[in-house]
Design brief:
The protein is an alpha+beta fold. The protein folds into three domains: 16-40 and 76-144 and 322-340, ATPase, nucleotide binding domain (Nucleotidyltransferase, domain 5); 149-187 and 264-315, Nucleotidyltransferase, domain 5 (2-Layer Sandwich); 189-257, Alpha-Beta Complex (Actin, Chain A, domain 4), CATH 3.90.640. It has eleven helices and 18 strands. It has helices at 56-60, 83-97, 118-130, 141-148, 189-204, 210-220, 251-275, 278-287, 301-309, 322-332, 334-340; strands spanning 16-20, 24-29, 33-39, 42-45, 51-54, 69-72, 75-76, 79-80, 107-112, 135-140, 159-164, 169-175, 178-185, 206-207, 231-238, 244-250, 289-292, 313-315. A five-stranded mixed β-sheet has the order 3-2-1-9-10, sandwiched between helices. A five-stranded mixed β-sheet has the order 13-12-11-17-18, sandwiched between helices. A three-stranded antiparallel β-sheet has the order 5-4-6. A hairpin with a 3-residue loop joins strand 1 and strand 2. Helix 2 (83-97) crosses helix 3. The N and C termini lie close together (9 Å). The relative contact order is 0.15. The model is unreliable at 7-13 (pLDDT under 50).
């Protein structure tokens, strides 16, 4: 379909920008801002096939449901792993963004990881159309994140962005509204949670859930030694005698648990710097590296990256929202959208 944002439904349509993430989905409505920020989870009743809950309500059910209700994460590593439930989830979020008006057929800007396959792109587009979109434009996540972080992406200078989401980390060098170099590693926030689960299981024979692991990462996780190390009480199930148990873990232990995942992300950044053309690399020395995504909030990650690369490292003002804010800006600037949207 040739690029056009005209639609026979334009008079009904409220244009949307969607950051369809592995961990969270964010929806931006033109003229209103971010109206949805919910986990990418669907709770399904296996007996009836009925969707019991989506988003925040479904996350509350994680690990707490009867056997016939399962929590499904339809996105894996930034792409669709379960088509049917992605459509249901998208449909729910689109209706929620428009106060459940069924008649609305929005035009959507949707963000995707920079190195997904043609088949995966088609899956995203088809799911959005089946969720009643009237037109779909796709934009690479690092490009949207850079725009959302206020980087001057249309200028002929090098901008490096590192977007650490739930399923993927995107590292990109952008100049003149184009991606000069990009690399996606399927290691990000979810792998950090899994690393915490495995570490505590191996060291203490204690089994903890995903929600607990995420809470530990947020509260005492770090990528570099902290000025004041912290301790946290953790509740789980003892794997030896099978009864609930509480123990204290330290921030040093959690840093050790996260070290391998953090190293993979740092190696991806170093590789990007090695592959960047010299003129643009010189710009990055001046401008530094910008971190976005939920993973950018891991404490002292900027310090660790600064030490490993010797470059300035900045965290975006609102790292969790950078991607959807960038996509939202494109709803008001069709010329920019035409330059950066994928075919």
């Amino acid at each position: 379909m040739p690029f056009s944002f005209r639609s026979p439904f334009a008079f009904l349509s409220n244009d949307l920008a969607i950051d369809l993430g592995t961990a969270y989905t964010l929806v931006y409505v033109k003229g209103k801002g971010i109206v949805v920020r919910e986990p990418s989870i669907v709770a399904l009743n296996q007996k009836t096939g009925k969707v019991e809950a989506v988003g925040t309500e479904a996350k509350e059910m994680l690990g707490r449901t009867p056997g016939n209700i399962v929590a499904i994460k339809p996105m894996k590593d930034g792409v669709i792993a379960d088509f049917e439930h992605t459509e249901r989830m998208l449909d729910y979020f689109i209706k929620k963004a428009h106060n459940r008006k069924v008649i609305v057929r929005p035009r959507i800007v949707i963000c995707i990881p920079s190195q997904i396959t043609q088949v995966e792109k088609r899956a995203v587009r088809d799911s959005a159309y089946r969720a009643k979109a009237s037109y779909v434009a796709m934009v690479e996540e690092p490009m949207a994140a850079a725009i959302g972080a206020g980087m001057p992406i249309t200028e002929p200078t090098g901008n490096m962005i590192v977007d650490i989401g739930g399923g993927t980390t995107d590292v990109a060098v952008i100049s003149m509204a184009g991606i000069v170099y990009s690399r996606t590693v399927r290691v990000a926030g979810n792998e950090m949670d899994e690393a915490v689960i495995q570490f505590i299981k191996k060291k203490y024979n204690l089994l903890i859930g995903e929600r607990t692991a995420e809470e530990i990462k947020i509260r005492i996780g770090s990528a570099y030694p902290m000025e004041k190390e912290e301790t946290m009480e953790v509740k789980g199930r003892d794997l030896v005698d099978g009864i609930p148990k509480t123990l204290a873990v330290t921030s040093e232990e959690i840093r050790e648990a996260l070290s391998e995942t953090v190293s993979i992300i740092i190696d991806a950044v170093k590789q990007a710097l090695e592959q960047t053309p010299p003129e643009l690399a010189a710009d990055i020395v001046d401008r530094g590296i910008v971190l976005t995504g939920g993973g950018a909030l891991l404490r002292n990650l900027d310090k660790r990256l600064r030490e490993e690369t010797g470059l300035p490292v900045l965290i975006a003002d609102d790292p969790l929202s950078s991607v959807v804010l960038g996509a939202g800006r494109m709803l008001d600037d069709f010329e920019l959208l035409k330059r950066v949207a994928l075919d």
